[in-house]
Amino acid sequence: MKVSARNSLKGKVKEVTPGTVNAEIVIEIAPGVEVTSIITKSSYESMGIEVGKEVYAIVKSTDVLIGVD
């Protein structure tokens, strides 16, 4: 995976709260350290995000994006 953002934090999905339009994803990047991102429901579904999956929190400006391998 290659992205232009310089800040990429690898972690595991700790919690997923799907909604009608968006999903809230909580990622544990270190013991007791969490990052939360709101992504579209379609992105959440197409990426196969589930608790325990390794993902990347990609920080660009004021947004936190999620990437998977």
> Roughly what percent helix?
under 10%
Distance between the ends? 6 Å
Question: Any idea what the radius of gyration is?
Answer: 11 Å
Oligomerization state:
single chain
> Helix segment count?
1
Instruction: Determine the strand fraction and express it as a percent band.
Output: over 45%
Sheet having the most strands: 5 strands, antiparallel
Q: Please provide the ordered H/E string of secondary-structure elements.
A: EEEHEE
- By DSSP, the count of extended strands is 5
Low-confidence stretches: none
Summarize the structure.
With 69 residues, the chain is mainly β. It is built from 1 helix and 5 strands; from the N terminus they run βββαββ.
Can you describe what's shown?
The longest helix is centred in the middle third of the chain and has 6 residues, at 41-46. Helix content is 9%, strand content 59%. Strand 2 and strand 3 form a beta hairpin. The radius of gyration is 11 Å and the shape is globular. The protein contains one helix and five strands. The chain has 69 residues and is mostly beta strands. The protein has a five-stranded antiparallel β-sheet.
